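quick one, 200 residues, struct below
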Amino acid sequence: MSDLVTVAVYPTRSDAEIVRARLISDGIEAIVIADNEGGLNPGFYSSYGVRVVVTAPNLAEARESVGVEIIEIPDEAMHLMVAHARAWAPNESCGLVAGVGDVVTKVYQLVNADPGPDRFTLDPEEQFTALQDAEANGWEILGTFHSHPAAPPIPSRSDVDGGGDPAWVNLIVGVEDDRIAVRAFRYVDGVATSVEIERR
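---
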């Protein structure tokens, strides 16, 4: 296969293999890519995900086939979230993202009202100010972001249980051994479902 592109990223290889099997049954050739550092670290991919990839011409059909949800994030917005994570380390950072449809247009870097290395609480006054600003600009709040200062971007049990509005996307900036990764999830009924990030 040439010109491979990612359909979606999954937390385990078994999840990715199920999606690959579905794509193949729909007539779409797909492969699973899981980085294990050349076999030296079999669990490495569990931190940063397992990718299901297809050829570029099949991407739209593949995403439709498996019902992949996408959020588009400009590079500038990504940089703002990462910078906020670094500024708040070793505690978690937090904030909101706003935009139109599934496209992020604004990042609100908020104060963590309950700072700690494993928790965050959006400052209520800053949250209200962000909501007002988003409405004034014709945007809607699309979701939250927070950091894991020394861990991969995988939702913790407290993240999922305290996820707030199920219509919101929850972005996690993971920092582990100076490796930065950002992943997105939707939390519904105590279950975290991956949302694919498309950089712009």
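The chain has two domains: 4-67, 71-199.
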